[in-house]
Design goal:
- The chain has one helix spanning 2-17; strands at 21-25, 29-35, 38-44, 49-54, 57-64, 67-73, 77-82, 87-88, 95-96, 98-104, 111-117.
- It has 122 residues and is mostly beta strands.
- A nine-stranded antiparallel β-sheet has the order 4-3-2-1-11-10-7-6-5, with helices on one face.
- A hairpin with a 6-residue loop joins β10 and β11 (111-117).
- Mean pLDDT is 82; it is low at 1-16.
- Keywords: Signal.
- Residues 1-18 form the signal peptide.
Length: 122
Amino acid sequence: MKNLILLLAMSFSVSAMAVDYTCSGTEPFWGMSIKGDKLSYDYYGEVEVNKTEKILSQKFMAARADDFGVVAKARKATATIVLNDQCSDGMSDQTYSHSAVLDIKALPMVLEGCCNVTPATK
């Protein structure tokens, strides 16, 4: 049974990393996207940050059987997306499928927000 759960977790992680994500947060306002091997993020606060970096490593996390996520690490930031964790930005009626945490090394705090899968473009 443990092997089956591990196999499911590994196959889920591959599919989770094969899609792109668009994320944002409010108060403070920030945005982030994971597209292929790029992590783009911006922050609008006392220090403005706007960067696109190559993702150095990307892996899945599995804290519980129902709690999977993606961690993407770049040189100056780390993004964590918790999948299937319904999220609200608190300012609109829009609901999101996933929650996110963005840790930008230049900032004194970690940013929290919401994500959806970015629709594929043709």
